[in-house]
Design goal:
This protein has helices at residues 17-24, 26-29, 96-101, 116-123, and strands spanning 33-35, 41-50, 56-63, 72-77, 81-83, 89-92. It has 145 residues and is an alpha+beta fold. The protein has a domain at 31-123: PRC-barrel domain (SH3 type barrels). It has a six-stranded mixed sheet with strand order 4-3-2-1-6-5. Strand 2 and strand 3 form a beta hairpin. The relative contact order is 0.14.
Length: 145
């Protein structure tokens, strides 16, 4: 595919610039729906948190509430979130009840995400991307028996 400059707009296997922007530009990521593996909406990306090296550490996912009131925030490890080609959302392989029981905070009292103990405790509640959570059945890798 070529754009108006005549250059290819195939971004690392993505068909167009919009797909690339949705997964690489923070301004496009914030506000994106987060769904579970069943396709149920479980929240929205509210913010992005960087680690001390400048790498994305967490997506802050807002759940519950109405029009920003009563939202519960969750610092979801970036490694627990994945994108799905052709969709305008992120996938977090966790059911709604497990997410509700995960550590959370409100907009006015953020945890110290650089605290190693807090980080370790928090990460235990979220699956790594590509690994099933304890509430889903394992799926064998493609091509393996």
């Amino acid at each position: 595919m070529t754009g108006t400059t005549g250059k290819s707009t195939d971004y690392a296997g993505m068909r167009d610039a919009k797909a690339w922007e949705r997964t690489h530009r923070v301004s496009k990521i914030i506000g994106t729906d987060v769904v579970n593996s069943k396709g149920e909406k479980i929240g929205d990306v509210e913010d992005i948190v960087l680690d001390a090296k400048g790498n994305v550490a967490y997506a802050v996912v807002s759940t519950g509430g109405f029009l920003g009131m009563g939202d519960k925030m969750h610092a979801v490890p970036w490694s627990a979130i994945r994108t799905t080609t052709g969709t305008d959302n992120f996938v977090l392989d966790i059911d709604k009840d497990r997410l509700r029981s995960a550590p959370g905070f409100d907009q006015s009292s953020w945890p110290n995400v650089n605290d190693p103990k807090w980080s370790s405790d928090n990460r235990r509640h979220f699956p790594e991307s590509g690994k099933p959570s304890s509430t889903t059945s394992p799926t064998p890798p493609v091509g393996k028996k």
